[in-house]
């Protein structure tokens, strides 16, 4: 009961990449970079186990960014000439590559980390991939064409590639494959209209557990400012949860602690496992086990014990390493307290 996991990313050690950045530069190159990525992955597998988490991830140590890490293995994308583009409905600017031709996978994307993860923990494993709609929102396009139809076509093309990698991750022995779709909280109508369909295409044929993570973004200033404009009640989930409840996806990861999401929206996910965000990633203050257990208690009003999985609100990539480590421990201790309480 109350199996714990992180949303996905963890801070990179300072010998691997720049710290506290969303798009950090690597500090190694060539074979040394490959070795450093593997070393950092191992380090965080051990740290998650030591903290007491039940479901272990790779901490996304081998990808520069949760979207672009995947895109680097896709043919048909021009990484040489990146352009500045406002992403998540112009919430912040990012330097993004262009889609210039038909998309194809060059080969495996995450074989190294997934196989390392499977070989070095006997606990359940979770692996994250970006969702098709969020990918479409994080690239510029010169191939699929303007407008909604072009976006849908491009999303479906990415969904096919994600599906190839997801099936391979399943064959590597991964137990839970999670697609990250922060864009669902930005383009709610499109998400319900075609985002969920693209997601299901990405998960097609998987027999392992499937999940989607929807959040209000990393704890960076642009997101904190945006959240301040959303008012006292955040009801974005309300528009997409009914479509997700009807979908083939097994688990939904959402933001709760310190957010203004009304807890009762969880009831819209009837029948699904809910990964409840009990750790705030926009604050360096470490949650107490009591706070974590309290959030779990509030969520239990709307989801049964068997379906509740305590999690972090979002990834922890841009945070300090020491803060992230303490938050992992708080997550595990809080879930333990909740097991006694409930
Ligand atoms: Zn997130």
Helix content: 25-40%
Distance between the termini: 10 Å
Radius of gyration: 19 Å
Arrangement of strands in the largest sheet: 1-4-6-7-8-9-10
Nearest-integer average pLDDT: 95
Poorly predicted ranges (pLDDT <50, ≥5 residues)? none
> What small molecules accompany the polymer chains?
zinc ion
Report the principal-axis shape.
globular
Structural class: alpha/beta
Proportion of β residues?
15-25%
What count of helical segments does DSSP give? 10
Q: Got a strand count?
A: 10
Element-by-element helix/strand order: HEHEEHEHEHEHEHHEEHEH
* Largest sheet, strands/sense/barrel: 7 strands, parallel
Which oligomeric state applies? single chain
Can you characterise this structure?
The chain is 38% helix and 19% strand. The longest helix has 25 residues, at 147-171. It is built from ten helices and ten strands. The strands form two sheets. The protein has a seven-stranded parallel beta sheet. Strands 2-3-5 form a three-stranded mixed beta sheet. It is globular, with a radius of gyration of 19 Å. It has helices spanning 30-51, 68-71, 111-120, 132-136, 147-171, 188-202, 221-227, 237-245, 289-299, 321-341; strands spanning 55-56, 74-87, 92-105, 124-130, 140-141, 176-180, 209-214, 251-254, 273-279, 308-312. The chain is α/β, with parallel strands linked by helices. The structure holds zinc ion. Zinc ion binds at residues 7, 182, 213, 215, 314-315. The site of zinc ion (ZN) has 6 residues, from loops.
Task: Chart the SSEs and their pairings.
Blueprint: H1 30-51, E1 55-56, H2 68-71, E2 74-87, E3 92-105, H3 111-120, E4 124-130, H4 132-136, E5 140-141, H5 147-171, E6 176-180, H6 188-202, E7 209-214, H7 221-227, H8 237-245, E8 251-254, E9 273-279, H9 289-299, E10 308-312, H10 321-341
This protein binds zinc ion.
């Amino acid at each position: 009961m109350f199996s714990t996991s992180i949303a996905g990313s963890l801070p990179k050690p300072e010998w691997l990449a720049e710290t506290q950045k969303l798009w950090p530069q690597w500090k190694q190159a060539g074979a040394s970079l490959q070795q450093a990525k593997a070393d950092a992955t191992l380090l965080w597998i051990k740290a998650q186990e030591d903290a007491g988490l039940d479901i272990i991830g790779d901490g996304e140590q081998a990808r520069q960014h949760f979207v672009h890490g995947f895109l680097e293995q896709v043919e048909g994308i021009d990484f040489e000439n990146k352009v500045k583009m406002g992403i998540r409905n112009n919430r912040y600017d990012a330097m993004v590559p262009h889609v210039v031709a038909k998309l194809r996978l060059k080969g495996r994307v995450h074989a190294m980390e997934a196989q390392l993860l499977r070989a070095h923990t006997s606990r359940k494993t979770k692996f994250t991939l970006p969702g098709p709609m969020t990918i479409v929102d994080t690239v510029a396009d010169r191939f699929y064409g303007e407008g909604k139809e072009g976006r849908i076509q491009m999303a479906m093309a990415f969904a096919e590639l994600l599906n190839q990698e997801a099936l391979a991750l399943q064959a590597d022995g991964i137990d839970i494959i999670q697609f990250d779709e922060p864009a669902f909280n930005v383009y709610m109508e499109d998400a319900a209209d075609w985002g969920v369909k693209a997601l299901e295409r990405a998960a097609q044929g998987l027999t392992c557990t499937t999940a989607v993570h929807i959040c209000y973004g990393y704890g960076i200033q642009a997101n904190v400012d945006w959240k301040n404009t959303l008012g006292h009640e955040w009801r974005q989930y309300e528009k997409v949860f009914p479509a997700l409840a009807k979908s083939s996806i097994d688990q939904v990861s959402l933001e709760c602690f310190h957010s203004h999401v009304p807890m009762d929206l969880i009831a819209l996910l009837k029948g699904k496992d809910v990964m409840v965000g009990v750790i705030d990633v926009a604050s360096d203050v470490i949650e107490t086990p009591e706070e974590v257990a309290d959030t779990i208690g509030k969520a239990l009003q709307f989801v049964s014990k068997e379906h509740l999985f305590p999690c972090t609100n979002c990834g922890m990539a841009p945070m300090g390493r020491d803060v992230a480590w303490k938050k992992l421990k708080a997550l595990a201790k809080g879930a333990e307290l909740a097991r006694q309480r409930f």
